[in-house]
Design goal:
disordered N terminus; mainly alpha; Helicase, Ruva Protein, domain 3
């Protein structure tokens, strides 16, 4: 059996700043990773795909021209739309995605607390059944218990 060698990928010559910024941009090869962390383990090759390499190269070139991080990200948004960003900005409908988990947790917690309070009130206010017990009745019961204990 012949061993099939894995195709080696040349490392992407980028700066640390470009890799950090690349992690804020989505890779559009379909892997679902960011351009800075795109890898294909188990495939014919392992490492960033050509799409991720191209994006990282473009980020590096823009940085070398002196563009700010926000200007570079904005350029990608203008070219590819907001789907180019790994974390879309919290405005418009995207705002709901950021706030929904906290709001849902708060509503759930409030419901649980209300239900627990109602259960406690039901148990605490359960009316006693039967006639009221007077001091005379208690004394009579004590005497009866004493007699029963002495007889045994």
């Amino acid at each position: 059996m012949a061993a099939v060698p894995l195709l080696a990928q040349a490392p992407v010559p980028t700066t640390d700043r470009a890799r950090v910024l690349g992690k804020q941009l989505m890779c559009t090869c379909g892997c679902g990773d960011t351009a800075g962390s795109c890898s294909h383990p188990g495939a014919a090759f392992s490492g960033p795909c050509e799409v991720a390499k191209a994006k990282l190269k473009e980020v590096d070139e823009r940085m070398s021209r002196g563009e700010s991080d926000s200007a570079i990200l904005q350029a990608f948004v203008q070219e590819y739309g907001e789907s180019a960003l790994a974390a879309p900005p919290a405005r418009g409908f995207n705002w709901l995605a950021y706030t929904f988990p906290a709001v849902a947790f708060a509503i759930g917690l409030a419901l649980v607390l209300m239900i627990m309070r109602q259960w406690r009130q039901r148990v605490a206010v359960a009316p006693a059944s039967g006639p009221g017990v007077t001091a005379e009745m208690l004394e009579q019961a004590r005497r009866q218990i004493e007699r029963d204990v002495q007889e045994d």
